[in-house]
Amino acid sequence: MIEYRKDYFSDARTDGLTEVGVTRQRSDVLGHVTGKTQYYADRHFAGLLHLKMVRSPHHHARIKSIDVSRALKVPGVVRVLTAKDVPQNIYTILCLIQVEPNDEPVLAFDKVRFKGEQIVAVLAESEQAALAGVAKVKVVYEELPAVFDVEEALKPGAPLVNEYHGRNWFTYEGHHCRRVRFGNVDEGFAAADHVIEEMYQSSPIEHAPTETTGCIVVPDQNERYTCYSNTQALYFTLDNSALILNSPFHKLRLVGGTVGGGFGGKVDVITEPIAFLAAMLTRRPVKYEYSRAEEMQVSSPRAAERIYIKDGVAKDGRILARQVRLYVDAGAYSRHSPYGTTKAAAHMPGPYTIPNVWVDCHCVYTNRTPSSAMRGFGVTIGDFALEVQMDKLARLIGMDPMEFRILNAYRDGDMKAHQKEVDGAALVECVQAASDLANWPIAGRYRAMSSQKREG
Amino acid sequence: MTKKRGRGMASVNYPTGMNLGGDPSQALIHATTTGSFIVTLSSVDLGQGLKTVMAQICAETLGVSTENVIIDTADTDTGPHCMGTFASRGTHRIGNAIIMAAKEAKSVLLEVAAEELEVDAGDLETDGAGNIRVKGSPQKSIAILNVALAAHFKHGRTISGRGIFLQPRSYPEPETGKMTPATCYAHACTVAEVEVDTETGEVQVLSLKSAYEVGRALNPRMVEQQIIGGAWMGLSHALYETTEPYYPNRAHGPTDFNQYLMPGPGDLPEFSNVIIERPAGDGPFGAKGVGEMTANSPIPAIANAIFDAVGVRVDSLPITPEKVLRGIQALAHDPEKWTPVFRKDHAQTEDAARH
Question: Of 3.40.50.261, 3.30.70.360, 3.90.1170.50, 3.30.2310.40, which CATH number belongs to A49-143+208-297?
Fold first, then answer.
């Protein structure tokens, strides 16, 4: 059931639109429901090679030696790729927006920093032969102590996860975390009737697309290479691949646009650079596709977060101060997590006007699968923590949870903690509409409030 | 066995776009000889319906029907740059680029039509049905098909347009965090109703009732599709999903959908939704990005409803039956105690050892 509440903001909308504001059937839906949509994997190329990865069985280990000789003897195995074959082996995805340092190898060579990290690519005439080749690659490891807890990782003496950072956290312009400072939280806590501090925690979450991440790269004429990919961002993939391959940009072409579920999981650039490289070195089409197990345990999940929220609230329901310490578990490499951590900081203290806000958001490296973008990146888990905290605060002071939200909700013209004036607010109206929809009564004072005026 | 019901709510907002790195997207539009309009992009449709909404935005701006617009996308040899489909940016950023391109194409279209009709271009309008007519005297009109033919074969004009939307990069101030991380914000509020089995700790979500403020719903059924799909994901995050069930312990990671749990059709609640539209000044026809937000408010609403039902706070995701049951048992021992169930040392050792 869906209903439009046209009574809200009725003077803000222009009429006379004919093509937007009306339902049109999705252009791809018939193909999807009849199974006729062509995804990248539906393309077939003569001479296709299959790429399978040798992956780390350890969370953290030094690589003592890699022996591929027995793999090369497996019938159907055409060649193997190691770090030595990758022109610019160390990269980071967000170097395109000047995020530093490059901190991740395309293929691991001196160390592995998480279980499942890719080390050797095996190219073969069939998937079966490629997997048989993978089983024959001998890697000798020396296991190293690993760290899995974000707060343990920040302590002195913790195992160092990523040497390119030199410490277990991302550095933001000289700071060990992304900070937000607005007002004075100590004064806010002193003036509050109640102060509570609570801790929230999430675990990594998989995007779980129907179609796993993958691509096929095909050598064209004229030394160009076309990559058929299910990436969510063609140019991100093209530009990063060219940098990793040390290739002129014009030699690479990305074709995509039909994706069997993204949710942020196909924003990383993992399968394409190595498939490009394999196609360049073999002059044959190459397919690199994650298995379901790789999709779940090797491809980046949503970051686990640990969030401490300390609030000072007055008896009348106003939140006077909010202090947030947030830890994003980036896993072994940056990928998109430094960005998501900043996004998390900007999101605090939620859609409420609080005069005193103090936020420290830490992007922390641990020996687990690198986390990266996922739907609601930097916000979803923060909202879980904030809104459970809001429920606790409302109950603590004996206020209705809806009225408590409406009282504190930001209004047009208010100043946010990241010093941006609120514009186009509509939280008050959403809470009011939800109270109607769910038959959850609120008092007349709160019914009369709006996002444009604090009181009615 | 007792089943207890509870109700909880949560309200959230969500930013459109990701301009902490600069946030551009481009569109090119041209008319064919027969008056169809091709929009060329390199943007990716993830299955959310981007291509359909982009065609609608182009059609509305040009004043033609959506059927006459063809979206040609996702080839870097032909399509101009797009940052990508993420950060709830597609509708807003690419939509704005298309409006800019369509305005330029439309101005050429009207200029050619003006020559054909021997009137001033400023006096012309599209009728939305494939014709261009003189304002106030609709009998004086010309089919867009004929305008396009004339442009190609008689006037030597390209009916085309270029569009870009760029939200310039914001650099956060290191000391204070002063920044402009996004553009407009969408809003939501969800009320969840749950039933908790006090013997097994299992939670059944009975209903999710939500209000969403989306700026402008450009395609109402696709908005509905987004918000129900998103609410499903929120429910799934709240109660089921993780790749590391005993985080931060790395053991017992699922590798397939037998082990990685998600709600099935029988676990779906009743969905009721209300849409509110407060158009964004910078959005295409006022639209805001809502793709990501729709998963967010159900999660805390469900957590709060569980507390309302059985008095147990589970402050760690996912809220599994095991955690709920432990909370219920702890409460039975000490009803005065208000205890978050999660303890990291506990999760790391005892729970993992038990399995």
Answer: 3.90.1170.50
